[in-house]
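2024-03-11 09:14:02 INFO worker-7 job=invfold-0412 stage=load source=structure_tokens
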């Protein structure tokens, strides 16, 4: 048994709770900081690249005369002129590290693509709305650029500049497409951030699950420790009461010998040994409940045990006008548990259920294989009594917690301890004025 004091356990629980909140918060802050840095850097680079593309498009557009555009559209351009123009656009492309330079008409059909990727007359595909809006800007005479957009694994940005005739009317649009190296870096940073986000999420969830398990462990230790203190306290009390009782008994025998002849009966004298016996029995009962006896695990039949308990308690139930339902799935026959201690568990739970229904009601017991993946038997004990409010549910398994005028508040702590020793769990669901259901999960050990 652990000897950690409840205060230290409470303190540790508080520390674990602080860790539980702080580590995921740090992970979250770290991720948020990463994303805000990424968005700021992206915004800045996007803006700078935009300015550069607009100026390249605008400067290049100054070198393109409206006659040239007309001659290309009307296919009257001679080969040398065409070659020179393409060479010029190719140089702009190369010197500015662009992906492509192209000219489209106001209906967004290609007039020329310096990289020969698109044919004349082919439709220019806007990759997003922003792109389409910027083309509209350009067709209204204003240089502009698209937002950053993704095409496959690469990120792009396009600058547009209007090509105008002598009267200032827009006759075509010149576009410059760029996918510089740093955009690849941005894309990598984004992928890394997504990766870290997923890893943080998985780690955060695992971490919370582990800490919750640790907190549950503390809770179990906390109850175990309280129960052990209770055992020590009652053993000490029993010893202190039994000693004077022993003295009273011997004194009684001496007094009787001295003052009462052997053959004479005196009722008054008999009260003393009777009451001593009575007191001793009460002490033994109390001790047997609070003593943390090791389990004697054997192959036992749950149905037989429950039927035996119900038989013994049925007079109490009849008196309290309580009906009883019982359903134990046939699959659950014999498995390993301590029948004597589990009898104590069921008796405590059924007694509490009876006491929770002073005007009668129904007790239902069910046993079935647990459906949560573990090899457990689930045993439900439900009543239609006055229920337990949320605040009391938290204290339910603490020794000496009682809401009854003549209660000791020991039953539920004993129940908790016995189930804990079996490696099981007990859960409670309750609604005030509707009833309470206790669900016990016991390891379903069918082999020794
Ligand atoms: P006691 O029965 O001596 O009060 P227990 O440890 O058996 O001590 O129960 C502690 C408290 O839990 C009870 O006083 C009662 O408030 C509550 N309780 C336990 N079982 C039930 C139940 N089935 N319905 C309503 N309250 C319950
Ligand atoms: Mg009780």
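2024-03-11 09:14:09 INFO worker-7 stage=emit residues=448
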């Amino acid at each position: 048994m652990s000897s950690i004091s409840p205060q230290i356990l409470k303190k540790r629980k508080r520390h674990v709770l602080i860790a539980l909140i702080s580590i995921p918060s740090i992970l979250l802050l770290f991720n948020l900081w990463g994303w805000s840095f990424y968005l700021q850097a992206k915004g800045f680079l996007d803006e700078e690249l935009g300015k550069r593309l607009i100026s390249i498009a605008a400067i290049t557009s100054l070198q393109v005369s409206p006659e040239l555009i007309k001659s290309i559209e009307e296919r009257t351009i001679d080969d040398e002129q065409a070659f020179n123009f393409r060479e010029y656009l190719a140089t702009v492309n190369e010197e500015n590290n662009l992906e492509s330079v192209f000219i489209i008409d106001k209906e967004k059909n290609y007039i020329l693509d310096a990289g020969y990727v698109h044919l004349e007359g082919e439709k220019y595909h806007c990759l997003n709305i922003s792109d389409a809006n910027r083309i509209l800007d350009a067709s209204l005479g204003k240089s502009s650029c698209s937002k950053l957009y993704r095409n496959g694994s690469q990120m792009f940005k396009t600058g547009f500049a209007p090509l105008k005739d002598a009267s200032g009317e827009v006759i075509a649009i010149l576009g410059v497409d760029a996918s510089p190296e740093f955009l690849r870096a941005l894309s990598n940073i984004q992928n890394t951030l997504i990766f870290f986000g997923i890893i943080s999420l998985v780690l955060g969830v695992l971490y919370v699950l582990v800490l919750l398990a640790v907190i549950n462990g503390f809770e179990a230790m906390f109850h175990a420790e309280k129960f052990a203190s209770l055992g020590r306290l009652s053993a000490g009390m029993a010893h202190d009461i039994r000693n004077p009782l022993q003295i009273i008994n011997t004194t009684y025998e001496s007094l009787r010998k001295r003052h009462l002849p052997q053959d004479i009966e005196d009722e008054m004298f008999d009260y003393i040994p009777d009451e001593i016996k009575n007191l001793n029995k009460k002490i033994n009962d109390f001790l047997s409940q609070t003593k943390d006896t090791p389990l004697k695990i054997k192959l036992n039949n749950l149905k037989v045990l429950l039927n035996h308990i119900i038989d013994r308690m049925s007079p109490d139930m009849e008196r309290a006008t309580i009906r009883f339902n019982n359903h134990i799935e046939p699959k659950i026959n014999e498995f390993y548990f301590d029948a004597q201690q589990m009898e104590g568990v069921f008796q405590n739970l059924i007694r509490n259920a009876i006491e929770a229904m002073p005007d009668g009601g129904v007790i239902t017991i069910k046993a079935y294989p647990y459906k949560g993946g573990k090899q457990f038997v689930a045993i439900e004990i439900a009543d239609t009594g006055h229920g337990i409010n949320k605040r009391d549910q938290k204290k339910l398994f603490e020794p000496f917690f009682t809401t009854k005028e003549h209660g000791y508040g020991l039953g539920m702590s004993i129940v908790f301890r016995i189930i804990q020793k079996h490696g099981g769990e007990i859960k409670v669901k309750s609604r005030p004025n509707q009833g309470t259901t206790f669900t016990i999960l016991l390891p379903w050990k069918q082999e020794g």
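2024-03-11 09:14:09 INFO worker-7 stage=report msg="The chain has a mean pLDDT of 87."
2024-03-11 09:14:10 INFO worker-7 job finished
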